[in-house]
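I'll show a record.
***
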Amino acid sequence: MVPTIDQLEQYFDYVERLVVGTLAAASPGLPNVQEALNRLWLDISRFGPPGLPSFPDIRVPGLRPFEVPPPPPPPPPKSLIDNAGDCIARHPWIVSGVAISALGAGLLAGYSIVCMRSLKGRRVKVASPQFERRQAVVILGGDHPLGLPLIMEFEKQGYIVITSVSSPETVSDIESKGHGYVRALILDPSEPGTIPIFLRSLASTLSRRFPITAAGDPYAPTPYHPMVHSVISLLTMPTASVHCAPAPFEQISLRSTYLPHLLSTHVAPLQVIQALLPLLRADASRARGHKSIILCLPAADARVGLPFGSVNAMSAAATLRAADVLRREIAAAQGMSAIRIVTVDVGAVGSSTGDLSETVNMDDWTPSEKATYGAALSALRETRGSRVPADVSTFVDSLVSVASGGTKARYSGKFVFGIGFGLVYEQFKDWVRGDRFSIGAGAGTYAIASYLPPVLLDSLLALPHFLMTIRNRLLPPLPPRTDPPSNRTVRSTTPASHPENVPGTGTSSLVLHRPVGLDSTISEAAVTPESHPNVEEEGTSPDAEAESNDGDLESTSVGSSWVSLGPHE
């Protein structure tokens, strides 16, 4: 029988009452389920889930513990260059317009500055007073082959030039080539008595009004007196003369040869500089500018010291050491920091180098000296003279740059967009060169060679003589030269008691560019004792081989020797 709807509703009602009654009977204190869930949710939200019991650590062999990789770092921020590139990529036309405008404004500003400077220079040149030149440059040795170009360049750069010459005939020649700002005074370095006269003339010249050809009062007012700006010594760089001819140290007369050369190239220039130091110190403190003392020395003698050049080398070494000591004294002194001591090693420049191809006089040499040093001197002659001299303008511009501090050098007036990069370049070059630098052909080579070890340097300097010796050994021997019977001399058996019976024979001069004459001279000097039994008595005596270097002591054995050293003169 199918129940009806009423029966079903009654059944469901019964079941509901049964369940509720059963639960109420089983747990009379059980709270409401909804309230319990709400309370549980609040507790979890406030305190989190309750702790779970720890499970045992289960490790599987062969597997590493799992590590969570760190998150990747954030990308770096863009730099200024990246931002500028992005901006240019986004706005190309705007950036191009701004760049063109800035470039045009810079060019216009630079052109305006250059035009204003040029216009100002013209106005100053037109309206300048007569006493505008006050910086004087003292050049010792104006009659040196490099002196005249140096004098003309300093006058062209706006300096008053006071130079020294050794003869009165040169005074008018030098002053006539200037424009009234060149004054030549007499100073003979070989005569010490002319030094005080030169200093008095210099003091008088510093009170003159320049140009000296101007009409009116020849003396300037005291506020417009010229001030010594720089002292340049060319006397320390001598030309070829009898005092500096190549000769072995053994043959040099220290009294008659070296002492005059030392007085001319070392003592006289330093004595003038010594007298000018107080004037330089006073002018430096008054003008608040940099002063300079420039000493020019031959590069080969100051750096290395070549064989057979002992006279020049000793004088140059003494001057160089004096310059170093003076530089250190000025650096330690008070109120003299503005004075600069510069040493210039001059190589082959123009025609200033001495001509070593001339005949070297060997009349005063003993036969032993000729046989010992003749071949080496000939080798030195044949290995020199092939260097091409540098231009004189290089030497002149370098000295002008040092004296002016780079402000009046060749490239000091160069401007780029209105900025004086030329002056910066000249000042930087002057700073890099320091207080000693080299000018001219070969000067750099000698400067580098001076840093070599002495053993290596001596070997390099002896190489020409070694090669010449090998060449002479490979050449066929020359046939012996026989003199006519009338030209032969007969030695007296008693030369001491009858000196008038012994005719005097002159000695030959050695021509350096003719080694054949040298070989014949040496071969004639080397006479065997068998053919002349009495040579051993005189030729090997100390009086015959030793040579006195004093002017008043002369060896008579060479003049009375019966051995013919060459053709009679």
Notes: The two ends are 180 Å apart (CA to CA). The domain at 133-353+389-458 is CATH 3.40.50.720 (Rossmann fold). Residues 124-131, 353-358, 486-569 have pLDDT under 50 and may be disordered. Strands lie at 135-140, 160-165, 182-186, 227-233, 291-298, 339-346, 436-439.
